[in-house]
Amino acid sequence: MATSGFKHLVVVKFKEDTKVDEILKGLENLVSQIDTVKSFEWGEDKESHEMLRQGFTHAFSMNFENKDGYVAFTSHPLHVEFSAAFTAVIDKIVVLDFPVAAVKSSVAV
């Protein structure tokens, strides 16, 4: 199976009283300034049962051309700075970083 890029997937539960809109604006600003981020998507869970959600509320997905692009992103000064603020408002987090095995690619609508 061929790989098609590298993905950075983050699932979080924010701390109580976190200004999530500000965090989202900061994240959108961050990815717009770093060219190695090929795409960025995020969402807030609205449908899962609490038992399945385990308290997690938001998911963030970034795609890179390859692992080198991801490494360049993580070491970028803007990412390092943003990560400190992001980490400070996280109650729980799961991070997965992996080469993508494309089975059925999405089609632009």
From TrEMBL:
Pfam families, alphabetized: Dabb (PF07876)
UniProt xrefs under SUPFAM superfamilies: Dimeric alpha+beta barrel
InterPro entries: Dabb, Dimeric_a/b-barrel, HS1/DABB1-like
PROSITE patterns: S_R_A_B_BARREL
Domain Stress-response A/B barrel: from-to ranges: 6-98
Membrane spanning stretches: none
Quaternary state and interactors: Homodimer.
Record PANTHER family: EXPRESSED PROTEIN, PTHR33178
Protein's UniProt name: Stress-response A/B barrel domain-containing protein
Organism: Capsella rubella
